[in-house]
UniProtKB/TrEMBL annotation:
Protein name stated in the entry: endo-1,3(4)-beta-glucanase
Gene Ontology terms for molecular function: endo-1,3(4)-beta-glucanase activity
SUPFAM superfamilies named in the record: Concanavalin A-like lectins/glucanases (SSF49899)
Enzymatic class: hydrolase
Amino acid sequence: MRSSALFLSLAALAEVGKARPPVYTLEDDYEPANFFDYFTFFNTSDPTHGFVQYVNQSAAKATGLIANDKSTVYIGADHSNITPNGRPSVRITSKKAYNRFLLVLDLEHMPFGCGTWPAFWTVGPNWPNNGEIDIIEGVHTNPTDAMTLHTSDSCGITNDGAFSGTILTPNCYVAAPGQGNNAGCGIATTNNETYGAGLNAIGGGVYATEWNSTDITIWFFPRGNIPKDLTHGQHPDPATWGEPLSQFQGACDIEAHFADQQIVFDDTFCGDWAGNVWYPSLYPSCTAQAATCTDFVANNPDAFADAYWSINSLKVYQQTSDWHTPGHAPWGVDPYLPKSISSLCPIPTASMG
Ligand SMILES: *[C@@H]1O[C@H](CO)[C@@H](O)[C@H](O)[C@H]1NC(C)=O
Ligand SMILES: *[C@@H]1O[C@H](CO)[C@@H](O)[C@H](O)[C@H]1NC(C)=O
Ligand SMILES: *[C@@H]1O[C@H](CO)[C@@H](O)[C@H](O)[C@H]1NC(C)=O
Ligand SMILES: *[C@@H]1O[C@H](CO)[C@@H](O)[C@H](O)[C@H]1NC(C)=O
């Protein structure tokens, strides 16, 4: 006699022998209580030449630059001291690397203000050949997010995708002729809830980034409008989310240009971007306060009280053909499986292993 389990799966197969698309299933939950265990702390000088002192985990904890509990992660910068040699801050890189993902960040607050240059991004070990995906990035008092890819040669983006943003630079190659040095391919948004003061004013929201074989797509959902399959579901489905902010595709073999991406959070000061745009014509409210970006950052500790990330959750989903784990939520239950199979699903226990 065959086991009843086999009988059931044969029955399921018979039922669903037709189209049964892969689904996203939780792979890693960077749960706040253990958040920093999943990252390494960058401890050398900033490759982007920022006016920053990146500190290690024990120093960051001892000086209050990082804190976490069961529900929130805080990553900030020194906001008590005059710092003539660069402001203490934190840059962390996930120990784990990914190939393709659906990366979901629930963010309550992000660093903002004159002198700052925060970023939430992913990068491969062999830059630029493994690619870089900048999901949240900006400087000073910018009102909106800048999304950018940086790659080796022969990767470009077009307007063919359906997205609300505007292409600023189409060539992702870091040394593309006719673009600024390391400009990469950039997409801008006019949505002022996606960055800085606007994001913080609404209690943030969720950034979801899908990297598959053909596209890199970024959605932002403000706090009041997060899809239910992200808040309660087990199998988030980007096809149901509506228009993204950006979609990078068109003239790029994504598979050839992106690999082994690690997740990074940082907040640097001045440096190659923020330091080079300290102009009254661009940021009058900042430049009115100091002659140079580094003067401002060194001498105004109070201004950096707002320069922090507050993270509610960070989750990585991967495509699987398996609807079984997990499958009991009111959203994301496998519509293809008969109830008797569905109810055998184990309770979700996914976490970083
Ligand atoms: C700096 O970081 C590297 C990589 O995480 C680590 O191996 C090294 O021990 C760190 N050094 C200091 C002084 O913290
Ligand atoms: C961390 O940094 C502090 C301050 O620079 C230093 O004294 C300490 O040795 C470092 N710890 C590790 C583990 O490298
Ligand atoms: C964002 O834009 C809206 C509409 O233009 C405006 O009312 C609001 O004040 C802006 N928010 C910020 C923080 O600038
Ligand atoms: C990649 O993701 C985008 C956005 O969800 C989607 O439109 C596209 O069909 C996906 N490509 C593949 C091969 O699944």
